[in-house]
Design goal:
The protein has 239 residues and is mainly alpha-helical. It folds into two domains: 30 residues; 205 residues, Penicillin binding protein transpeptidase fold. 63% of the residues lie in helices and 2% in strands. A two-stranded antiparallel sheet has the order 1-2. A hairpin with a 2-residue loop joins strand 1 and strand 2. Helix 1 crosses helix 6, helix 3 crosses helix 10 and helix 10 runs antiparallel to helix 11. The chain is globular.
Amino acid sequence: MRRILALALGVLAVWGGVQVALYLSRMAPAVLSLPRRIKQELAIHGSYVVPLSAMAPSLLKAIVATEDRSFWTNVGVSFEGIARALYADILSGRFVEGGSTITQELVRDQLLTPVKTISRKLRGVVLSLYMTRVFTKRDILRMYLNQVYFGDGAYGVAMAAKRYFGETPARLTLAQSALLAGLPQAPSLLDPLRNLRLAKMRQRTVLQSMVAVGDLTPAQARAAYHAPLNLVRGGHLRA
């Protein structure tokens, strides 16, 4: 009986490996063309790709601290995060968003359908692992920040910095960076031009995350929270 079970598991493992290989062979061209695809999408929206060197360091730290604290060391997925998300799914009896890394979010946004299914999650894991083999971490973070939606029609950091603050990504303050880093979670709900109170609450959460990972002291976080945002719309100061 044990031999039969072992044989069955072995056959299943081989079959699964073949299916993964076939899936990657189909998806590899789409993965490798992501930089060009993102550039084309931004051009449609009248924007452009911004290199990490032209973004405020505070923005990069805020995004990583908030979205994926293990980004620089993980393999594209967080198995601990997946386990937490799976546990939450089982408890709630439905698919609960969570457990995704920055790489998985990029894959989901660019390569997968928005419908939440177990198969989509599995495909996302496979593609995220592949992404970390063919792109550097800086490549992945650059692509993510240039395609993520920040609300109010702003796709990518160039549009978001201009739309909300009338600035380039390089000139963002810590307060502005923390506000932007919180928006991808719920860009419409947290739009600071429409709901500044909720946006500020989310900004506080981002700053607390930066304190938790050692990027800021509590005093620096408090100062950033109370610093002016200089929000603008149509050239007029908002807050």
